[in-house]
Amino acid sequence: MAMVCLTDFEKYAEEHLSKTTWDYYSAGADECCTRDDNLLAYKRIRLRPRVLRDVSVSDTRTTVQGTEISFPVGISPTALHCLAWHEGETATARAAEALNTCYITSTLSTCSVEEIVAAAPNGYRWFQIYVYQDRKLTEKIVRRVEALGYKALVLTADMPYVGRRHNNIRNQFKLPPHLQFKNFNGLLQQETAGHKKYHTSDPSVTWKEVHWLQSITSLPIIIKGILTKEDAELAVEHGVQGIIVSNHGGRQLDGTLATIDALSEIVGVIKARIEVYLDGGIRTGSDVLKALALGAKCVFIGRPILWGLAYKGEEGVREVLQILKDEFRLAMTLSGCINVAEINRNLIQFSKL
Amino acid sequence: MAMVCLTDFEKYAEEHLSKTTWDYYSAGADECCTRDDNLLAYKRIRLRPRVLRDVSVSDTRTTVQGTEISFPVGISPTALHCLAWHEGETATARAAEALNTCYITSTLSTCSVEEIVAAAPNGYRWFQIYVYQDRKLTEKIVRRVEALGYKALVLTADMPYVGRRHNNIRNQFKLPPHLQFKNFNGLLQQETAGHKKYHTSDPSVTWKEVHWLQSITSLPIIIKGILTKEDAELAVEHGVQGIIVSNHGGRQLDGTLATIDALSEIVGVIKARIEVYLDGGIRTGSDVLKALALGAKCVFIGRPILWGLAYKGEEGVREVLQILKDEFRLAMTLSGCINVAEINRNLIQFSKL
Amino acid sequence: MAMVCLTDFEKYAEEHLSKTTWDYYSAGADECCTRDDNLLAYKRIRLRPRVLRDVSVSDTRTTVQGTEISFPVGISPTALHCLAWHEGETATARAAEALNTCYITSTLSTCSVEEIVAAAPNGYRWFQIYVYQDRKLTEKIVRRVEALGYKALVLTADMPYVGRRHNNIRNQFKLPPHLQFKNFNGLLQQETAGHKKYHTSDPSVTWKEVHWLQSITSLPIIIKGILTKEDAELAVEHGVQGIIVSNHGGRQLDGTLATIDALSEIVGVIKARIEVYLDGGIRTGSDVLKALALGAKCVFIGRPILWGLAYKGEEGVREVLQILKDEFRLAMTLSGCINVAEINRNLIQFSKL
Amino acid sequence: MAMVCLTDFEKYAEEHLSKTTWDYYSAGADECCTRDDNLLAYKRIRLRPRVLRDVSVSDTRTTVQGTEISFPVGISPTALHCLAWHEGETATARAAEALNTCYITSTLSTCSVEEIVAAAPNGYRWFQIYVYQDRKLTEKIVRRVEALGYKALVLTADMPYVGRRHNNIRNQFKLPPHLQFKNFNGLLQQETAGHKKYHTSDPSVTWKEVHWLQSITSLPIIIKGILTKEDAELAVEHGVQGIIVSNHGGRQLDGTLATIDALSEIVGVIKARIEVYLDGGIRTGSDVLKALALGAKCVFIGRPILWGLAYKGEEGVREVLQILKDEFRLAMTLSGCINVAEINRNLIQFSKL
Lengths: 353, 353, 353, 353
Description:
The structure is a homotetramer. Chain A is of the alpha/beta class. Helix content of chain A is 39%, strand content 13%. Chain A has a single domain, classed as Aldolase class I (TIM Barrel, Alpha-Beta Barrel), CATH 3.20.20.70. In chain A, α4 packs across α5.
């Protein structure tokens, strides 16, 4: 089968992964309204393409936190890549390096950060982090990823508790015995590395802990999971370097607005003081174009990476990224833009007949 | 099968109840537009969750009419619990007591109020009442429930006549011979306790009869079945203690607005002078959160209780209530609130791109 | 099978009529958008019922053109009743008489007006008329129906040509040989009574011909087929006594607005100077209530009458009318109104959350 | 089977063409959102027909670029007619001539322009053109079509690159060996006439090349593929004679607004300075009426022509055009208009209840 678009990989993954693994990756919280609306929301937004512009030379590059990436799509943190492909996050890392984009490694990786970095030494990476009740544990992890060359910390803000994902509960999903959350190996003495309490933040974490993080690291800090202008404003006030507009792929609070529907109000209040990213529901190059037109500096994809892994490991992830890059370049040029700087709100139709 | 959410109980009930009973419980009036829109309306409302707040300690308690309940979900009055489970309303009462929430007992119970109170002596209960043409009959019932410790009277206002529920008509639904509307035993001399005219109010009842009720009891009076600001204002003017925004689960007038769509205008005119409750369409903790964000003090559920009964009697109702309580706590904390006092309109998205 | 609602009759008719006849009756023009939207539009309108009003005594009567009918639903003109039931329009006439409502007889009846009047001598009837190129033919018909006691003329205004109804074209639908458009018997010498040109108006007809009609009769004239405020205003200016907001059941121009969606603007400009009626899409008592709340004096039903005929002739039509009457009374009282005079725009929800 | 409406031809074509050919014609870009919305958008627009006007004589004629055509529907350029019918574009040309309407011949025809003109010497035709990197090649084509009597050049503006049409990629669609892009025969020495780079414009083409085209020809120039008021204004400023509001049938950028939804804003800015046409989604005479009411001077159809070809070659295309002409005349007269000059915005409903 020719893999032409991201949903081809989704179909492949659904057919080839075990039901438990597929359910784990595809799960949304509760009734999956938010998970599904993340995608549907893009289809409600209409583009206003411009024509007769010289688009013979185009450039999809952008920067995030001052670093150039080859196109404005990075990899959102998702857990447990070894479930999809035996090489797990090392395969993902190599693909991200090959495409020269940003890979946000999940704390809950099944390869260790050392293995990930070794697999793709020149890759550009951020690290997704939780602040645990045991602050020392968090600090140790920060020190390790700093030493390994991670370029930013992405603090997950929307997971004080785990959302109710029905199929995971039905399947009594847990980490298979042959896999480990390897980043905890050696850090946890009396506990197994799969211990549940490291799946989420300490639920008492507030902006105070953001200050604490800032005090122990000089890495840029990016807050992931913001959906309102109020929290966006707080992010700026607390001196972070970026935010990811995210509802955790619809896996946490069901019934939130779609991320693309939240973006406009957030961009409006941020006014370019810090970079605004987005994840959730991106499936085509047109989706990327719409998100950038509405003010995102870069978007991140989660599940499609897992589908790519399930298909062919590193090669599958490369294909997923390459298709999205090709689609984005085509959408950009067909809308009359030759680079990301030319993409703006005028591409979006705001009123209808 | 693991029971993970309320619709799991619905599926179980549909499969295990007789068709006639299932039809009776699930029935809506006419084309069932209102019954169905009660649920769909929640899915059109989007939440704006706040993050990075300390939600390590949370409290789902609230009060209704000054009494504390463990979470803002009570049990709406529904008839004929013995159809779903042999112990009927006594099972429901024990579950409500166990979860420490408010159980509005229906006049049309198949256990007597005496049996219900005996089964769960410490439960917090209100009594749903009709004003009959024979006012003495209503007065006798009021005296009994007062004596039994019921804490409020809930006057059904939207049932001067019974709505047309097609399947009930087709099934020629009637009370099976082994069951009785036990609250009428001893009260009705020449008539059977299943007599049809006690299913509804005297259709001549107006606010005058509310005054009459106030004159014969000191219990708080709550009007159930209000859908407009005009009637909400009248409720305040007539000195009642609360109203339940309700369309009778879509079983009366088909084509009304969904209760959650009616709530905002009513809350806007009431301005906290009395408590505003709501029933209809609540199926998840997010639905509860939305209703509270839009101004409901507490919500009530009807059909899910019957599904719980059909599943496992008291235990089934406890499971239903516990799941909804867990879901509500999770939705509340994931939206950044640690108690019901923090829930407000800012959680709701009012405009879209 | 118990016949509980109008769609029960629809199902019966679809199963028991020949495909050609069913197709003829159910046909809409082109893609049937308007035919279907006539029904869907009601489902988009929400009611705001009032409670705690004395509805113990209710009255569904109204008047049309000064004559009392038992409830605000009359019979719209439809052709060829003998296709559905051997007694044809005489059965319809008897049912209308029995229910004491207004029956608009179609020019294209398969019983003659004389037979219709003889079958139900005390019925209240209007006559639907076309202005033909041969004005004398129209005049002769007017004289006959005047003499027979018809109380108004209903001029079809939306049929200068016949709409494209795909299935009729595919079926090559024509009047079966055993049936006749009996109203033309004796009037047409050299032509068969089924001649096609009597199916529609002379396409040159304008308001001038309305004046001509007024000059030859003292009967009230009602224009059927108006969908805009501009034409409604012209109707008043030309001195007619009423208009029927109609899109011919979606059988003429496809893509028009639904009649209930056209009603408000028309009622707004008419300001009660003449009576405004409506047909199209009425299937329940709630639909009738909505139409009256938005300003219709009375509604008319077309296809449901044919379904009733197909079911049991006169008895079937009586059942259809009786169900709609019962549903309307229930909807009216459940919304807090005891008669049609109390029904007004406040029953309709105009804005949503 | 009687062919009653355009979708009958669609069904026929889907059943009788090879899958590869059907896929090629029906393809939309990416997720086909725009392809499908082009049709759905018409169904969201409601007509306000006027009645009691003399429509006994009607006239569907209009002019485009000063030339009379028999009704306001022309033929949009589509490629590869020989795939659908062995006579290819010569059949299309004869049908267009027979119906006296405008046929925009595609550069990518499988008959040469000489063959097309010879087949229908009196037909009114425009020529769709790309500006190639090799400007001489474009110039040679312009000279040829000028000499052959083509009356305008239609510059495709929305195809600097080919859109991603999934099924074409899966099918590895290419020109079958027995067919040629005959317009390139003799023009290309070292390359095959099917060479891919002649499928699209030079992506560097801008309004400057429009000036160049104007400098080498006196034919009117029409820009095809405009969707915004900004580009419409530029078209006027650059002195072209017309624009076609088009999204290439949804085959280029997916996610654009439907053409009928783009029309109003464009017509508003053009203010009749040049003629505005539209293609995309026209399937019925009501669709044509809506487009004219919203300001299009004429519409063009693409895929329905291919379905007609697939059905019966010239005769099939004639049937398609004749049905659309009949439907348009009927829709026009049923809305109260006797000619295209009477069609205006008042026919469109802009607000709803």
